[in-house]
Amino acid sequence: MSATTDYQALHWRLFTSFLSFSLVPLFVLGFFLYTQFSVSYKEKVLDGMRTLVENRKSAIELFFEERVSQLSTLAHSLEYENLIHEQYLLQVFNVMQTRSKSYIDIGIIDQNGNHVAYVGPHPELRGVNYKNEEWFMPAMSSGLYISDVFRGFRWIPHVIIAVTVRQQDKSFMLRATINLDIIENIVRSAQVGRYGDAYLINRNNILQTNPRFSGAILEQPAGPDFSRTSTTRLEEISLKEKRAFFAATYIPTTHWVLVIIEDPQEQLSPLLRARDWGGILFVLAVVMITLGTYMITRAIMTKLKRIAREKAVSDDMVFQSNKMAALGKMAAGIAHEINNPLAVIGEKAGWVKDLLHKENIQDNPNLKECDDAVTKIEYHVDRARKVTHRLLGFARRMEPIREVIDINKLLKDTMVFLENEAHFRDIGLVTDFDAQLPTITSDASQLQQVFLNIINNAVDAVDHDGEVTISTRFDDHANEIQVLVHDTGPGIRQENLDKIFDPFFTTKDPGKGTGLGLSISYQIVESLGGKICVTSEIGKGSTFTISLPV
Amino acid sequence: MSDIRVLIVDDEVDFLETIVKRLQDRGFIAKGAENGEQALDYLQHNTVDTVILDVKMPGMDGLQVLQTIKLRWPLVEVIMLTGHASVESGIQGMQLGAFDYVMKPARLDDLLQKIRQAVERKKLQEEKIHRAQNQ
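Structure tokens for the assembled complex are given below, as produced in the milestone run.
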């Protein structure tokens, strides 16, 4: 039916609009929060990296500044003549190494590049001439030289600090090899987490320390080239399909660049965990909202349908009541108009009969015929009279008598009239009375007419071999008594159900019913403040329910 | 029975004529009046036992005529004849003092029975009055 599809469409529309109004804000909020959170979390991670890289840079700078000032102080305060004695130099070296093992070895080089004194693990360097080494001339002229990592004569990566001092008219150079492990340690402390990395490069993008992962000292690093970095750079770069955070800072003292790499996957793992939890909560919220929306819309639709149904019923009642009133008026009008001519016809026929009976009709066949005809006329006037009188009964609106009635007793009294008939036709009259039924104030004789009518109809509907059940009950919600008359007859067809209370509507054979019984019953019950309704199922029977106010 | 005097009041002339004839035929002293005024006029000059009075008539209607009759000739019994949707008017008539009511079209036998009952009551009333006057 179209009403059902209408309801379904409305249900669907309500459901979707409720859902979208609930879910859209949730999605927007979720997206906004996630974006905001992830941006600020990333900023926090990058901030951490900036702090770390600058902190490590300071450590490296401090280390080199301390070494430079130590070496510079030594070179300026000690005599060249003493220093070239390796015994003396060893004493100096041991003093230097007491506080920290920052150095590998120490050597003195004269202005011609000759390695005049050496203390350290590489005695083969003693006497080597550095004059042609690329660092020698710049170191000699600038007074201070810090090398990149290089292999030199010993063929082991190392860094040197050379301090050139002028004493009297000679220059000499104090050259110390820095323990690379210390720098490596400083850098390594910036290798965060399981996948974080940190290394130093020089201005030519050559590794000055061993990275944790790919690459080795004096090679090129696997990552992007940060050798031109002038201050501090923070970047997120995808490398081989893998995202990585890079922080790079320039160390002026050594002209190196410190590069720190962090794995976002690892660094952002609290964020990702939060995202996963958020996702789960979000899905739960969506499920709950959907479920809630479904339940709410279903409740609304149920309520709506009930209201519509109740309205339809009450509309139906009003319509039926109006129809009955109009029909009543019409019936009364017609009955009146017919009664007067009928009265004349009846009287005329009576008069003719009176006259005929004064004649000797036995001897005159024609007069006998006339007498028969007049008798027939009187009979049919009588028949018509019954109809019009019933019609007037239907239309009448007598003030009902008010008396206290026990409905159960009234029903029992009424059934007495029908018991013989029912018994004769093998129809069982079953009663199911509510013993607690309250009494009502109404018109007993009118109600009896109604009960008689409806029970009689039920018996007629069953015809023979069946059952008519008469039950009573009290509906304390509506505060009314209900009398139910159920029959096991063939049921009433839907199209007839609407007309069943109309005057002259009958399904009985012509001449057997006037079609006024139910209309009159309807009128009576309505005038007593009650109502009659009927439900029926083809093949199963019908139930008439008479509701009467208490 | 022969001395029962009946006045029938109805605007339906065909009905009136016939019923008058039939009542006369049965030995009643029957007389017809076509409206309320005629009826009251007749009562003014004649003695009547029972009036059969149609409720719905042009001019004075049955209930008005009834009230006048009961006012002026309280002993005259009135039987209301109703053709209308008018059990009410019948009952109303009885409240106003009518003896009974008959619905049109009435069987003559019913009507005759009611006339006899009415006359009986009238006689009883008259006897009571008579006794009261003699005491």
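The mean pLDDT of chain B is 87. The domain at 5-134 of chain B is CATH 3.40.50.2300 (Rossmann fold). Further analysis is deferred to the final report.
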